[in-house]
Queue: 2 jobs
Job 1
Amino acid sequence: QGREEIRVVGSSTVFPYSQAAAEQFSNNTGATSPIVESTGTGGGMQIFCGGVGVAHADLTGASRAMTQSEFDLCASNGVTEITEALIGFDGLSLAISRASEFSWDLSLEQVYLALAAQVPVDGVWADNPYQRWSDIDASLPDIEIIVLGPPPTSGTRDAFVELAMHVGCEELEFVQAGGFDGDWVEENCSRMRTDGPFIEAGENDNLIVQRLQSDPNALGIFGYSFVFENLDTIQGVALNGVAPSFDTIASFDYGVARPLFFYIKNAHVGVIPNLMEFIEEFISEESIGPGGYQSERGMVPLPDADRAAAQAATLALTPMARPE
Amino acid sequence: MTLLAFMILAALAVSGFLLNRSAALAIQAGGTRTHSLAYFHGLYALLSVLVPVFVVICVYLVLKTPVINGMVIGGLPDGVLDDMSAGQVDLVLATIQSITRGQTFGTPPDWQLAAAERLTSLYAGADLLMVVVVAALSAVILFFVRRQVAAEFRARQAAERIVHGLMVACSLVAILTTVGIVFALVYEAYRFFEMVPVMDFLFGTRWEPQIPIRADQVAAVGAFGWLPVILGTVVIGTVAMLIATPIGLLTAIYLNEFAPKSVRAVVKPVLEILSGVPTVVYGFFAILVVAPALRGTGADLGIAVSSNTALAAGGVMGIMLIPFISSFADDALTAVPRSLRDGSLALGATRGETMLKVLFPAAIPGIVGGILLAVSRAIGETMIVVMAAGLIARMTINPLDSVTTVTVQIVTLLIGDTAFDNPKTLAAFALGLMLFILTLGINILALRIVRKYREIYD
Amino acid sequence: MADITNSGTGGPRKSSLTESSAKIAKRKRADLILQGFGIGAILTAFTVLFILVASLVSTGYTAFVQTHVTLQVFVDPAEVAEERLPRGGFQEVLTASLLSNLPDADPESDARAVRNILSNGAQFYLRDRIVANPSLIGQTISITVPVSDPFDQLNKGNVDRATPEAQRRVNDREIGWFDALDTAGMIATPLNWGLITNADSRFPELAGLRGALVGTFWALLTCFLISFPIGIGAAIYLEEFAPKNKLSDFIEVNINNLAAVPSVVFGLLALAVFLNWFGLPRSAPFVGGLTLALMTMPTIIIATRAALKAVPPSIREAALGVGASKQQVVFGHVLPLAMPGILTGTIIGLAQALGETAPLLLIGMNAFITSAASSPFDASTALPTQIFIWADSPERGFVSRTSAAILVLLGFLVLMNGMAIYLRNKFERRW
Amino acid sequence: MNDMRLTERGVETKQIKMKARGVEVFYGDTHAIKSVDVDIEDHTVTAFIGPSGCGKSTFLRCLNRMNDTIDICRVTGDIHLDGEDIYDPRIDPVQLRAKVGMVFQKPNPFPKSIYDNVAYGPKIHGLARTKAELDEIVEKSLRRAAIWNEVKDRLDAPGTGLSGGQQQRLCIARAVATGPEVLLMDEPCSALDPIATAQVEELIDELRQSYSVVIVTHSMQQAARVSQKTAFFHLGTLVEFGETSKIFTNPEDPRTESYITGRIG
Amino acid sequence: MNDMRLTERGVETKQIKMKARGVEVFYGDTHAIKSVDVDIEDHTVTAFIGPSGCGKSTFLRCLNRMNDTIDICRVTGDIHLDGEDIYDPRIDPVQLRAKVGMVFQKPNPFPKSIYDNVAYGPKIHGLARTKAELDEIVEKSLRRAAIWNEVKDRLDAPGTGLSGGQQQRLCIARAVATGPEVLLMDEPCSALDPIATAQVEELIDELRQSYSVVIVTHSMQQAARVSQKTAFFHLGTLVEFGETSKIFTNPEDPRTESYITGRIG
Ligand SMILES: Nc1ncnc2c1ncn2[C@@H]1O[C@H](COP(=O)(O)OP(=O)(O)OP(=O)(O)O)[C@@H](O)[C@H]1O
Ligand SMILES: Nc1ncnc2c1ncn2[C@@H]1O[C@H](COP(=O)(O)OP(=O)(O)OP(=O)(O)O)[C@@H](O)[C@H]1O
Ligand SMILES: [Mg+2]
Ligand SMILES: [Mg+2]
Ligand SMILES: O=P([O-])([O-])[O-]
């Protein structure tokens, strides 16, 4: 059977943006709307790399770059030409209910100490003993550590580990004094604690927002767009003195911003109707430019120059190289 | 075209019915008694045509596309498919199909246009052929069936044999579903146990399946001991049953013995709504209403309550199970013969004494059967716990803590990631298998008990 | 109290029937306590149900109305030209009309902010009007369009005007504009038919359940057409014809067990068999229906067998006794008598299928699709998966829409259960 | 009626135990019992006979208010037990039923042990203070019901495991155990084979030493064999009531006569 | 036995309609019927009597293979109808049952109209070609069952709405309508009142003009009244079989004698 509609899978973070592009595309052209599924970055890669042909997806969204092993998986299934399209940034943010009585400003080191499975305790690398924020630093509130965060299946989790946990780990005196290198950090600082304070809350960010609203002492980790929509009830937690906002995320001042991508299966361009037109819509200025409709949904646009380059590269369908 | 084929089939089958029936009637008019009613002669003709030809049409519908695609691909000029992978060939086919729909990109090469034409003509030809085959086959069957009409022909038996066959086929579907599930579970679980020793799985006390999904991902090291997971299931299930059983039983007792008819007529259906509410809704309810309330109460009392407390998930699940238990208990109580109730009342027992000392004990086997079925529901329930229970497995029986369940793990391990080759994903199947075995055991037990109790009163 | 132990000696002591001893009072009290517990149990269940529905209604009711603004729009030929249709500057035309009502807004710098009062879909409302009737170009027409979600929330009182400006999606100036429109009588909050008649959208004010309803319809139809005949056929065979032995016991246990198998396992099976082996399309309601049919079948089989069992053997014997064949007995007498029970079971099974989520997630029925499926093979969502998607959308408007969608789903469930109860009461037979 | 073995009986008048006056029973709109007056004597077996549906069971169930358990059933008129109106609102039917016991057409032992079946009534009424007392009541009741010898070795066996006749006698023992003053029996032998029937009939004759017994039966032979008084019901009315010997040999009412001579066994 | 009114009967020997030899029946491991030989004569009413559980019903159900419907039931031995072995695998039990009709203990009309109840058999056996013919069969059958006058005005009313006795006669009409050659009746009067019983007994006597009738009964009086031949079963064996008058007045077997003299109405 042929297929008339474009199929997009992938990251739940990119999902709202793909949705927006898909709806805009179909409104503008009257063409059948692309079908967008939210499968998580990893899951999307598995489906995307399943092979070429109408049974397989055309695009996949990703909240992190494609990895080497995924690229190889694609290649082994005959998906050899892939175009990487960088579309913008997502501000991963820590947030808490406005009902919280405390003013929150954490360092990444404190975040690490609160959430990691293993931390230095009296100079020894040991299981995380901290149960209250005040245990970590007396200046922090004397309340239980409760952080709701993404499950390991999600790219959000990967990004958080990389951007917050690893960096926080490296800031530890223990690590700096010990002279441990990046590999050591990756080896030892990637595990989130499983003894209660860190709660893997599933992929549903709205659910986390609502749980924050009902529990003023719980922190949540999720996309900035959800903070933005609910500014009246929740607030971003400042990291190293920087509160999350569109500006601080775009400038990478807020510690945990990450790039968003989608990947194009080049072999499908020219076969699946309207695929190229949809890609053009997705990366148009109206979409990902400043003030474009993606920013309404919470995406942080790329700086002008980067954006122009990314758009050009995407339109040229330049196949990506094997990631390092 | 397919519709036409079905219409032809229907028309010929009906005419076969009429034809054979009138033939049988003619024999009867001649004064001979036919073995079977004329109606059965007709029915036999109808079924003889309908069943095989229907199967033929279905097979055609399934095979049409792959066969024609194969023919088109096979008919392409030499060389154009050289060095192409299956997927690329698939894309070529998709391009050709797009052309038949009038969608082209640039100027397609001539061989593609030719193939598109061939594709169109093959489809048209195949449909025509199918209609002809259907008509011809039906006619041939009709012809032979018509010749069978005779006074001594056992048309009833013949028709009943066909119906019997159809019913057996239906049963096979149900059985095949089970076989399919068992096969899928066992096969994947076997692969899992090739990677993780059975003993580690069965007796391990650590469940940390978050081993790297990709070679270069860093995460927790894998540990696949299912005990904490099943323990979590047991904790949540126990909470659920502790809520559902007393409330359900008391409800049944009240409705069965004390409630005025009008109350019963209202309460029963309203309660049934509780079991009809989609479980995803209960999930929202548990996590957004019940859990915070419990946490708040706990905080007021100075007790630490996890925000994923098993109490919330289990409690809400218990609510869901109330009507299940109450209607089972109500049925069991109703099944106790009225004579026992009269017997007790006539001895001067109050209604409460009659209920508690005679009716309820007499209904116990049925009630226990129902409770067991509710238990198997509870451990198989998915969406409530996916939303309201935790993800992290811990060896605890404290219902105020967060625990995880077998179904939660299955869902989280599977949704999102469908690489069927690492133990993380395969572990879901091992868990599924254990769940299947567990519910099977409970069901066998429940059936035994219910059976035994039926024997007493039948 | 008569006491037989002394009946031999002095004859039973006569006691009055009205005389009430402490013992009797105690027994009566025990009776009342039992009743009290029963009523308490029922009230508990009802309270929970009430809280559940109330919490849904309290968040969901606002989604059943939608804020609209009625504008007098001059369809400027400079922006909208007949030759360029369906493209054109509809957005600009609408903005111009808004600006004409907001004297304090600067036509240049505030254009974007003002435009954001309207739903993104507003331009397409206008476009469709004009495409249908190009002669409107150059005229001033009156058009009613939805406002965008932040203003919808504002109008519904979900935005607390007292919160600091930085913590709101709408700032004080925007609120002022909206209030100006409101005072001018241009704002109305009619019933939100779009909730039913629109397909999904990323804009809450445009999003509706049509796609989900159509998808659910196709899925349930498929589910019914497959599970009903097969379920009844299997049940009749197993109950009436299959030899009773270890094997049939085993099959019975298995079918009971199928009803208890977690639904996600059926999703697993569907993923492996229907999608990967048979290559059926992803996200299709047909596949969803097949999957749900596998789950519904055991329910139907169990209900049918129970209904068949309930038909008294005397009816069977009577028919056999006059020389009817087994099949004549079953199809002529037993099945018609069992039909109400079978239908009830089927409806309840379908109601369960209606609310089922997990297996549909596995076969991709949780996609974003802005048009309703026109056949069971087109990609589509279903009601529960639509709820799932909406629940995870950032816009505030989706919170109430999620609850509203749940209420719609509950409405259908109550309807189906009501039907089952009606059937049961109407045809309930006592022999 | 030459084949009837009428039980010999004395002529002494007995005390009246229950007295019904102007009893009417309605099931919804159906008028099932029409103005019935009956006196039930102490130490007497009274038989109710009549064609099916004439209201025998209905009237019997008025005597211990078992009709209360039927929603649509409405009873008017007076029924007195030892001079007390049993339909008086102050009367507790539970206490009434302890005094007016009942045995049903189909034996209905509880699915408990034989012992527990008999001990059930004494237990709920608190008739025994100790286990020994209870044991005594159970044994005595089983003896009275002429089943002690058959079951004394298996008091723990389930009552449902007995044969039909044994079950019926067990039910009688159960009724006797609460020490009733009147015993109502609704066709107690209709589910039994002839041998079991003989045993139960013998028992009834014995029971009348201590109780007032009312028995509903289809079989005129049975009525003739076991009863001293007979009431003939027809279409909800009491047609004739009197000495059994008189009713069977010399009925006053032509309806009685035609029923009895058209007798079918 | 001085109270039995034995039906007068001629001495002519009748043709043998059904013949059973060495019939054994097992329910699973229970041996319910042990080597029974019986001849059922044409135009004769044969009664099966015996204590409860002795196997009367079981044996009766062998005669039209109704036992086939009980999974665990196994029948061995020979039973012939007009010289044909009815357990021959080539025999269609469905046709057999059309020839050997059956009436059950509890009246069991279909939940359909009175007309449809009677017409059902003729319809499935194709006995009537036209509606008029069918009407005729229905009327004739209802007349034979002596119920025509009571129901002729309400043939469309549901059969379940009739009284017990009427229902039983309707069931007989239904059985008669298929034109059977043998009619088996399993305690057809046990659910009936005496008046209805009398009607059915009269009917049975009439039916024997056309059919061979086999009746199971608990009541020896009934057996004596309606039958010409009687078979006495005990614990699964046929103890005695012969002329009813002989069995009741002068039984050969001591077991028969003791059962009959221990008779209870
Ligand atoms: N629960 C009831 N609801 C409605 N009508 C009833 C009920 N029980 C009895 N009847 C009617 O009351 C009348 C008397 O019934 P009852 O059972 O007292 O008769 P009976 O003399 O005991 O008959 P049988 O000999 O068949 O037991 C009958 O017409 C019967 O239909
Ligand atoms: N379906 C059955 N399964 C097992 N055993 C049975 C079945 N039906 C009857 N029996 C047994 O076979 C024996 C004969 O039973 P049957 O019903 O023929 O007796 P009966 O003479 O008709 O008794 P009754 O007078 O009580 O009707 C009994 O011991 C009975 O328990
Ligand atoms: Mg009665
Ligand atoms: Mg019998
Ligand atoms: O859905 P993710 O972006 O978290 O992978």
Job 2
Amino acid sequence: MDAQKYLNEIKGRFPGTADAAPERIKDGVPALLCPAPFLFEIVKYLKAEGFNYLMDLCATDYRDSLEVIYHFCALETNVKLTVKVRLDREKPELASITPLYPGADWQEREAFDLLGINFPGHPDLKNLLLPCGWEGHPLRKDYSRKPDQYD
Amino acid sequence: MTENTLKDKDGFETMYLNMGPQHPSTHGVLRLGLVLDGEVIIKAEPDIGYLHRGMEKLAESRTYQANIAMSDRFDYVTSMNNNFVTALAVEKLLGVEIPKRAQYLRILMAELNRVVNHILFFGFFAMDLGATTALIFGFREREEALELFESVCGARLTYNYFRVGGVSRDLPAGFIEKAGNFVKMMRSRLKDYDDLVTGNVIFQDRSVGIGRISKEDVLAYSLSGPVMRASGIKYDIRKDDTYSVYREFDFEVPVRENGDCFDRYMMRMLELREALKIIEQVLIKLEPGEILAKVPKIIKPPAGEAYVRTESPKGELALYLVSDGTANPYRLHLRAPSFINLQILQKILTGVKVADVIAILGSIDITLGEVDR
Amino acid sequence: MNAYILKILRGFWSLLVGMKVTLKYFFKKPVTVQYPYEKREIAPVWRGILNQLCDAKGVELCDGCQICGRICPVQCISMEVYKDPADNKRKTSSYIVDFGRCMFCGLCVEACPKKCLVHTTDYVLVSYERAGMVLGKDKLVKR
Amino acid sequence: MGILLDEAPYILENFPGGGIVITSADWFINWSRANSLWPLTFGLACCAFEMISANMSKYDLDRFGVFPRPTPRQADLIFVAGTLTKKMAPRLKKLYDQMGEPKYVISMGSCSNTGGPFYDSYAVVKGVDKVIPVDVYVAGCPPRPENLIEGIKKLQEKIKKDTIKNNGRAKIFK
């Protein structure tokens, strides 16, 4: 468990970070729950520590809050680490990590499009998959839609 | 295609070229907005979502088994690999042990599908560069492979072969012989492919040195699969972060250094040979046994989440699955290799001649079903 | 200049090598199946149009348990069930499958407890209107 | 050609023996139309691969005079092969409008027939016939290439029943 070392280091450095319910995560990858304002700094730290590959970025709606999940990997040592952020459902805002990992560009746009999470600092945040002018965010659990002429 | 002229900030006339969504060479319904200065691209902007079917939302209203059936339609060229990752994720949540024979059958099917995908890549890439014969040859071999799939699972494209805890059907009589013949035939056909396309000077002129992707870009843009390995990073999830029983098989991870279109093409041709090698080994190792573990009829994994990575022919195919203890997944997110590999287009198309767009797009090997989901 | 000519010659040679491959297949038997006249062999496990089986006397085996309809991911199977007063058994008065929507996944066949729902190797279903793809009992039940 | 074909039936009807001319003209025109269906290469999703297979070596749609064209201006048949999404629907309509008359549509596979596996999706059009008129539906998910050939044969049957009397004025006043 090499990644645990980084986890403890981060927990010491950034107050408010904690382990994210390890009993929920079945694959045994250490996960970190961090407060939204620190995210950019933590990711910056992780990148400097050798987590050079962003495997995946996605978001989930947990009815009371939104959760953004980052899966990082250090390709040389094959150490994996998950970072989770809980966001307010009404006004979800999270610093964009696209300046650090350009590969996060479309994944953040996808989260913006389908779950309505705002990423300040993103170079070009606009909808990606849905047509222009689509109302609502389909991946939210309470999404409902009026039938249109195509239904 | 619509064309119009715009003036950029220095007063030079540029042209906006709208390529797609209906274009014979964009591999589906991809739209590219290209700003051109003469023949050179100043800015390229891929516009996706023309095949966005909302599959991640639909997954939340389907059972786990139905989700495996739906996963055939994520990337319809590599359905078996999609089945594989979905089944693995559910099994990780459930914590079931898979019988040995089922493991081998899964790998056999996944590798056969890798062969099919790379044959198709060969055909379409050569077609994009102007060689029609290659596509006709490619589809001839693909039909042979599809016949194998059809005899096992009863469909040509949407297999729905994997079950939670194993596979749905055992091999029919004579399959091993037929598959062995297919591997032998494929080996001899690969020589034809090399004579026909790889050694062709026109083909090389149009692909060598075109669309270089550096190592740094690969990491920054999280590229994966053959695109990554063509740029000199030796990382294959089957070897480095192994899953299922891949560690029992002996195969190489080919690497190329230049990262141009030709290297990405060669990567697939080399991987195809490795996949054939794995198929041969599986056919020898297969032993009679159970093909389905004991799982409840209605699958209700305990609450939790799992992230499973696999190596699909297109790259790193991963699934993030959240269960809340009911019969339907709470959230299913696919890390689609095509979706993430496609992002690099914005960067590498800048400064490229418009004739090379198709070559570069073809060499990345995307399926729009997976890009848009 | 020399390199230029050399390249042309090399290109010409590679062209000849490619032509040799095509020439090799020129004299072989064509792979094309002349479809309407000769048909390809379909695998017996082919997931085609659904059929309902009957027993030896021609009585339907289906007892209207509705499992196939519930398990169908696209809900293309619908049926009406009644209780036959003669032998006090459940039976279906109508059994409709919308093949316009069916995704041919085979989950219904696997779930059928009576094993009376089967896929046939029949794959041809074309029609001029949507309703032509909705098949009822008259087409589905195999006596 | 257009005016000649549009007006000829009404003029010919007034002459003795004109009916024979019309029927033989019908036969000839329908024969040539039915055997040179040029489809637009319009692949959307999974079914596109079965459509390409049907065009390739094993099935070879060229035998039926079906030869894919990359632009709608040269095409008179469109295979809607795959899922039509709401983002794509206006584009399909535009492509269809660009095709010259007479034009035919084959809806291929469950997705384009009724929405199929995505029947309850927020982003999918529930059947191509909500956007453009469909002549032949081919069922399957995806249909085998043989099934697609059956669909083309069915379309040819439909074309062969057509008459030039349905052109021009009849079409306008219908």
